[in-house]
Amino acid sequence: HGWTYVIRYEPNYFGKRSFTSPKSLKRDANTINVGDLEEIAEKVGVTENKEGKIFIDLESLGYIKLLGKGRVTKPFIVKVSAISEIAAEKIKEAGGEIITETKAGA
């Protein structure tokens, strides 16, 4: 009688499902959004260069990837390991530049 209960009410109880990696092996990606760049620039005390662009080295601040949430109102020169496509578009639309080792969308 227990088997009929499982078949009727818990059809996915047995069988293979997706593999989950052990949490000890997962790397916590330290990310930041483009909307937070101005706040970070103020905290760090970054100065503008000759062209009026603000340089931020996110790698030295411990960030791995730049994501596209938020607005960019000032031109930034951003150095980061990885960047999303949307973040790259927003930085370039504001007149900024990106210095990265990984291509957009990585």
Your description of this structure?
The chain has 106 residues and is α/β, with parallel strands linked by helices. It has one domain (21-100): Ribosomal Protein L15, Chain: K, domain 2. Helix content is 24%, strand content 20%. It has 3 helices and 6 strands, in the order αβαββββαβ. The chain has helices at residues 2-9, 37-44, 85-93, and strands at residues 31-33, 54-57, 65-67, 76-80, 82-83, 97-100. A 3-stranded parallel beta sheet has the order 1-3-5. The mean pLDDT is 83.
Strand and helix layout:
Elements: H1 2-9, E1 31-33, H2 37-44, E2 54-57, E3 65-67, E4 76-80, E5 82-83, H3 85-93, E6 97-100
Parallel strand pairs: 1-3, 2-4, 3-5, 4-6
